[in-house]
User: Fold these one by one.
Assistant:
Number 1:
Amino acid sequence: MSDVLPGPALKVERLNKRFGGVVVAKDLRLTIPRGRVTGIIGPNGAGKSTLFNIIAGFVTPDAGRIELDGRDITRLPMYRRAQSGVSRTWQHVRLFPSLSVFDNLVLGARDYKGASAVSALFRPPWVRRQMEELGARADALLVRIGLSEKRNEPTTNLSYGQQKRVGLARALMNDGSYLLLDEPLSGVDGKNYEVILDLIRQEVAAGRGICVIEHNISFMTEMANDLLFLFNGQIEAQGLPQDILADARIRRIYFGGET
Amino acid sequence: MNLSVFAQVLWSSIAFSTFYVLLSVAFALYLKITKVWNFTQAGLFSVGYFFIYGAHRIFALPAWLSIAAAILLVAALAMAIEHFGFRTLRRRRSPTLVYFILSFMIAEFLIYFVTLLAGAQPQSLSASIFVPSTPVFGVLVTSWDGGALLTVAVLLLALLALSRTTIGRKMVAVADNASLAELFRIRPERIYLATAALSAVLIVAAAWLFGTKSVAVPASSLDLIFIAVISCILGGVGSLAGAAVAAVVLSILKGFSIFIVPSIWQNALVYYALVLVVVFFPNGVRLPPRWPSWLPALRPAPIEPKVAQK
Amino acid sequence: MTYLAELGILVAIWTILAASFNIIIGFAGLFVIAHPLFFACGAYGAVILGGVFGLPFAVSVAAAAAIAVVLSLAFSVPAARVSGDYLLIASAGFLLGSLQAIRNVDWLGAASGLDGPAIFTGPERTLWGLLTCWICALIVLLLARWIVGSHFGRAVIAMRDDETALASLGRNPMTIKIVLITVGAACASLGGSLYAGYFQYVSPDQFEMLAATTMLAMVIVGGIGSTYGPLAGAIIMTALPQLVSFFDLPPAWLAPVQGMIFTGIVIVFLFVRPGGLLGSTTRIGQSKVRAQ
């Protein structure tokens, strides 16, 4: 069980949330340790995205506690959690359509000084320097995701797979300790698939704690250190991917019917 | 203040609340079913009011005819606005701001148009505001009071009866979930048009009641619509009964506020009240009493699915 | 000649008002329709501080702007907990309530208004007024352009596109909105002070819903969220009613006809060209893409 591992982690404890009559989290407990990939699978509507929304601060839980490296972040608003190093991707990407790829990336940085009131009216040298650094980082990421030639294009000109690459890169600009990836591979194939896979491998190697929601079984088998099966707001099973996926009961719930 | 003054003010406020109630219900009805804050109703009110004024006071047509013709005109206008205006915005998936701007601009356009035709002098809809009154338990009750309350009662009961009919159930369905209703072969657009026509009836009735008690200029409707907005928000968005009750309560508060606040501050107070309501009670005021079960239910009972026998 | 010059002054002042309104509803996306209040702040401020307290014009402009900024916080702070629809309704109520309140307060001139000191004096006053107002108008337009083109502007555009996504990246949308509202309010106040300074008279009638409608009309016609749109809107919406005055209408008809023209134009634009003259043709509020 991963919560036995020592070291800093993003922890969720006793999480409870219901929307009207639907229970999306019931005494949920989850640990995302650094340097490992924690996978979450489960039938649609089981509350996986909502779980990410709660951890990221978009949705307030009815009860529970979220801890980042030992620090209680349950009360923090979404933007502060991002500043603390929890960054996420969205299932539907959510890039900014009016901005170019480069602009989208630059905005992902945690300490984007350009958003402060001071920078709004003046442009002191330290802001200028920081923006140059951010620009360099963004360009480096563009090289890593192989989209340097699309730097100044509006994101609406990109294919879905390319947008997903940009979305992932934008989350990486946060340079935080924890990444929540919501179906990073859905609707993606071929080159985009490989690029995203490589990126995740590199980030795990760099010591980040990554939590991935995915339906892609081969990805889970290959990449997840720990797999959680989420159903009806509860973690029905947790363990190594091959064990979970071999479990007959899980297969029945997830795939339906006899297998 | 002694008991008889208290009773008199209370009675007058309740009688006065009649046109507020009708306007609030009209606004709430449109909001509930189409989800649109339909400020054009201020313009429709002015059109209806001054149409009746022209027909009844200037061309000396009988009151019932003027009212009926006004209803037809306002309903046609309301349906045109819904069909050519809001439907276009819906098709384009316009942001809420655009709905606001459009409905506000249409309201103002209509009010300016009416001002052009009818002038800016305050006008009343009846030849004389003086109505005979009878003392009832020490409170002066006029025949206007009786007529107004009767009108409101009849119209609200008619609405209640309507909610039981097929079209009424369709309206409730569309109010709940328009896309789901479409799956059941209900055409939301037809329902929206019906809603527009229905609210036109309420608006013209409100105009008649207002004009037979007081005087108005074309721009008066803007103040009235704000009271309707406050009532809707206070009563809980989506609740017609809530809007009606809130309108009565507001009227009573307004009636008694004259003892605390000088009359020149009354208007400012109403507007600031709106601000407070919006900021502190955006979801309405939750009142404890539940609807008594021995009264006819406000909402038609949901259809229970029959459990198939094995 | 003076007539045209004074028309020019009016266009300049409306440009300032429309541009500052655009910053609030176009850039920040906040439906604060109480903009005429900031305008009134600057106008009444200039008249009272300059006339009653004898402060030099520049000082009263700055002081009035400061008051407008504080007033704007009354909108930006609750804006976080109040949704867009409600913010619009609340700000409309606040505007109308405050105007009624001004009408009841004697030292604000009540309904009959206040006369103010002459800021522009001498035989060339119209020329000076014209020059000053247009310089200020240009400054406000350039300020808007600077905001949008800067690193801050990147965040503003992103916020307009998808506020939640921006927050998930670590930016607080509230800070951005507060800055924008503050700047918008201060600029509107400047416009008010210039207006009072030249025309030397303020009354509540000048800041009524019609003023809000006019500003809104200019912003829509020019293009919500576009940088120079307010200028186009101000020119068109000031020029057109003037054409009406050439038709020798009875005076009672003047105001309603002007009103019908304003509102009619906005309605037409909303259907035919929702992006305004200088905005996108299809969507309200979408600006052209910036490339670095």
Number 2:
Amino acid sequence: MQNFFCKSFFKAATFSSLLLVSLSNVYGQDFIEKATVQGNIYTESNYYFSDTIIGAEEVPEYIRTNIYGNIFYRYKGINAGIRYEAYQPPLVGYDPRYEGQGIAHRFVNYSDSLYEVTIGNFYEQYGSGIILRAYEDKNLGIDNAFDGFRLLVRPINGLTIKGMIGRQRYFWENGPGIIRGADADWSLLQFFRPESLANLTVGFSAVSRFQKDRDPLYNFPENVAAFSARTSLFTGGFFFSGEYAWKVNDPSATNNLIYKNGESIIFTGSYSTKGFGFLASAKYIDNMDFRSSRTATGNDLTLNYLPATTRQHTYSLAGMYPYATQPTGEVGALGQVNYLIPKNTKIGGKYGTNIQLSASIANSIDKEKVNDTLAIGTSGTLGYKSSLGKIGDEKYFHDISIEVNRRLSRDLRLVAGFASQYYNKAVIEGHPGEEPVNAWIVYADIARRLQNRKSIRFEAQHLQTKQDNGSWAMVLTEFSIAPKWTFSLSDQYNYGNEEKDLRKHYYSINMSFNKGPHRLSISYGKQSEGIICVGGICRKVPAAYAAGITFSTTF
Amino acid sequence: MNKYKLPILLMCFMAIIISCDIVEEPYTNTIIQPPDTGEVLQKVLLEEFTGHQCPNCPAGAKIATQLDELYGDQFIIIAYHAGFFANTNASFPINYKTPTGEELKGHFGVNSYPSGLVNRNNGEVLGTTEWATVAADLISQEPKLKLQINKDYNTSTRELCVTVTATAISSMESMYVCVFLTESGLISPQKTNDDSDYPDGVIPDYVHNHVFRNSMNGTWGTNIFPDGAAIDDIETISVNCILNSEWNVDNMNIVCFAYSIETGEVIQVEEVGIQ
């Protein structure tokens, strides 16, 4: 025991020394010659035009640019990296507070079979993320990395213990809250029966935030903690996981300063075998928005991630009304079946046919008044009463869809699908009084391989609705000469808009060129106002009319 | 058994670093206003950006009102109706937007609603839950400037003349003085997300208070103490304007504030009714 600690601290001290002397003589020339250096660069620039009819506002700078560049250094167990970012200024739709440039992320990490230690910036996730997840997603404009210290220890077979302390990134600064976290994950079968092919794990996490309270109106808790317990089982084709989380009083800008505790429970189960797959998940979320600042809103300083239980669509009109997880209260469920009709059968055809059926729903949770005089959600009170698992009356979302994927011949593939969606715009987008959207979507995608590594693809989609902006139609054609060239042309037409002036075409022309690790693409066109979501986390995208150039490379 | 000591120790250590505070009722604080001794007090200006189509803005106005009740005369509010949320349409026909409000919105980079600046501190646009903390810090500071407003209103011509006298309490940099007019008690529809009382999301007879109406000396005001001020230096400015006939003078206030030419932060603010 003592030896382990001595060794650990010796390594940590060595590691720190290495940092301080920066590539000193300790490792000599090996530190340079035997090291691995990798990196990547991504730049995107758009020249904006104004189009008052679609709502594309005039951009005073005309050109806006986002730039990201990562460099990673690796030598034996030492990893180090930096990321340069520049927003000159940020592309339309990204938070203007990103404007600027500099080293946004830097870290040094040492790892061996027993432990791993990181100083600087790092990302982290405990369990499914319902009490802690720091991650980066450029599409969403999210980077809530920690800046601090992280330790991971594997003291016995199957057991991983993690601890961390730090502050979260807030554009070019760090947020005001100090975050402390600990997590233990134990693979029981790996410990007791290492030869077993199955796996049973249990895990526990705890996270707390310290943020000073100097508010004259409210008595805020300075330390807010959340705890979770989880288990997962994997055996054969069967997988099950469940996690329960609980958070103490956390009055914040997102829950209208109520003092109620939060809780959440999430289950996922799946089964797969050759030609068949089944997935089901369910969740209950009650007042579980957790951030490293009680004053943060939007996507700022989010500490936890509440997974989506809705299907993420690939086709644009099917994804026009995506669901955003409601951290203040939601009950959701998803069921999905994949079945491969065997090849050389009457229905399956010569190559087999894949069918995917999915259904998801999200509802409010049941909330009751604390007493007769207080309205639900009144700030400076407990807010409301609720019971775990009790479903409310208001539907937020549903999506029932079927997708068929069939190879018609050696060179011809067809994907066709249908979806029925209900989208409670008032709740999901926070626009009270707005009419819910009932939409029907059909789409077909046919791709044909041609000679000399050429291929052509054609997509047709239609969204039928009487609400919001009315119905849409879309066509897309894409021609590729593998592996270098891709050309595409698409048009979304909002032909069903009640206002005739807004029945506009949103056309887009794209070209991309790939060579080895380099990719260059050019685009020109219009984009309608909307929302993009990844895993239930969403970002509002304003209407835009732009010509853009994107370049990326890795080395 | 030895191999289990480390994980147990680590888990105990991690349990220790996690902590939480359980807050019991009352959740709100009570502050007793100090008696008026006639001394010059540091006052705080909240410049709130709002709009009648902003569903979260009534909650922001509520926090502003709570601070107003808490600090009394020491807390002064201007509500700028600006940007997309203040646009008019058939459901929200009354236009509260002003060129000054739009100019300030653009200058301070206001993007989320409701939000506001408290004494233009660091030029930062703050969310509603940040107002109280910043106001508490600023209001406890020693005042550097005394502002005195004298007004003369002619009811028949609707001409308003305002004289502002600034007296330096400590030596200071040069500054600008703005003389703004606000109106309260304006009743018109307002979006809300309080769906328990207003399921259709609109309060039809919402009372808009502290609505910015006009500046008597432009968005950026009049320069005083151009070479800086020494203790007890005094400077006076006079401005005048004709009030719009649609404004209800009985509900109107004159808000006068001085801000630093160097930092842009508000040094002192005063408010009096026109009548």
Number 3:
Amino acid sequence: MAIGNTSAQMALRDPDIRLMLRVRDDDPTAFAEIVERYQHRLVAIMNHLVGNPHEAEDLAQEVFLRVYRIRKKYRPKAKFSTWLFTIANNLALNSRRDKQRRPVVNLDPQDSGPLGPRPAENLVAAKQEAPSSGLAHRELAEIVRKALDELNDRQRVAVVLNKFEDMGYAEIAEVMGLTPKAVKSLLSRARARLREVLQPYIYMDSDAIPQIVESEDDDV
Amino acid sequence: MSDEQPAENDDLVAYLDGELDGKARQAVEVKLSLDANVRTEAESLKKVWDLLDFLPKAQPTASFTERTLERLAPVTGQMPKVESPSQLSLPMPAKDTQPMPLPTSWTKRVGFGLAWTAAILIAVIGGYHGRGYIMPPPSRPLKNPDALSLADLRVIENLDWYRHIDDYEFLLKLEASGLFEDTSNQ
């Protein structure tokens, strides 16, 4: 299939566009190559958006399937990654909306029921990382995760794309179908909300370093 | 800074994100240099942003590509080819109608085996023929029958006597008996 002048210029600049054009032309290996190239980024972003690695992987697969289904309609108008993350954004938002409408019970195989984790499960978890630092890191990650969940869907997408995909306001705007000014405002409010939730967990440079108070028993 | 100044907040965040330029950027920089509260605000926003680094980064499972292509099969009726990641970044070759060359490791193994077989055959044949030149075979008849070793002369001379003797042990017993002592000393 022939491509226009603008498309050709863009394809020359972006190797992923050339790859996608091969997918469009039914090159059987090109699609597998796209999956290989983008799976890490997509799964990571989806996980930040939905907060569940299994669901993130399913959604990332769904993004790739959608890319394949609409390949014949592909016209390179932007960076390939922008186009891909536009699809990812739509799917993630739809998925969250569906979840809000139909809440589901998470049957994670690691769940141990009402009696709590079995001793063997505790041992397995303990083997993963050092006791103190691992726990602190995990707890903080949990708190940050909850703070991210406090944002509305659009704020979360803007934060994740800006922070983890290093996208500028203009590119985020393109992915989300907004103006750059709207993205600027979205990110400003998102940061303010995150600060409200996470304020107790940040140390300002002017804060005193917490002192370790020795107990009286030690002095005896 | 309060909610009554959303535009200023937006500019401060945009400044931290490197999205401001020109006059807007200069305006924020002036405020930062003059107002300690604005500096504190900027610092807290930055530190909160850094906390996001604590979020774990999910990785796709090893079979992600394969499973994705499997899900694609009902859509296409066939599976797109999967190649190893190292091959994926290489440019695509033209359609190849020639027979597939054997893997390098296989051809190497066959070549090595053939070389060893040839070497063993050469050694056996060369050894067989070379031996004939170095030493004559033991069964080969003597060219000159008179050239017997002088060491055997005494045996030949007394051959008639030796024919009456059963074995070497008998001779030792005979000597031990002392019957021929005087004769042997003469």
